[in-house]
Write a structure and sequence with these properties.
Blueprint (H helix, E strand, L loop, with lengths): L2 E5 L3 E2 L5 E8 L8 E8 L6 E6 L5 E3 L7 E6 L4 E6 L8 E9 L5 E4 L3 E5 L2
Parallel strand pairs: 2-11
Antiparallel strand pairs: 1-3, 3-8, 4-5, 4-9, 5-6, 7-8, 9-10, 9-11
Amino acid sequence: QVQLQESGPGLVKPSQTLSLTCSVSGASITTNTDYWAWIRQPPGKGLEWMGTIDARGSAYYNPSLVSRTSISRDTSKNQFTLQLRSVTPEDTAVYYCAAENTDTAEYDYWGQGTQVTVSS
């Protein structure tokens, strides 16, 4: 059973960098059966794809966020990490990590989500 768990601070000050880690169990982030994604949902809005890292470590970003976003990984810990720079209150959201099946392009597995609030 594949499980994903987000971790990181729940409160970030404006202009700082938001950092979240997704710990994966039951699958390896280095095998090419899945892509590993970060998705967020601001209050009252829909889901927004932020970016994805593949089995080779190549990252792809939402064009609207590319200038502020970095996704990296630690293969020794089977974790991947999101960094979002220069946050504003508009970055307040529930942040999810998810596994996208490379064959079906569907998100088969999700973390439970973590609330991040940007406020001074």
